[in-house]
Amino acid sequence: MDEDVTIIHITEALSSFKIVNLLESYPNLEKITCSPSVYNRTSNTYIEALNQLDIEVVKEYHWGASKKPCDYEDELLKLAGEGYKASEIAEMLGITVNRVYYLLRRNKTKLETNTKKYDYAQVKSLRDDGLKAKEISEKLNIPLRTVYYILNNK
Length: 154
What we know:
The chain is mainly α.
């Protein structure tokens, strides 16, 4: 029983059983928020009954991760800029690798790295000099499929 809570967000339609459990768990409940789809699946009878108990049921969106910056975001960007791999950054900061990728995507404009890992001009120059794709790959120590990608894109 949590007497301090006055507002809750639900993710499934209200039923009589659910309402009774909510009232027992949150005796000072004043407001229930839910997505429009959940609101539309909830019976008007339940919504009216809650209004009579001075509990407001409101449509409210709660989508996606929080946009607030985390305290380690600057450190993460610094480490990524220095060339550390996502798994290494995750281990250093004690977060998941997926969180690292998410923050890097969210901050890609702040990241001071070159998105092209290889010198496209050098690859094309070697091709113009008569080297085959496999020879270019071995000479520059880059994957053969990357060489083909660079040569086939204009």
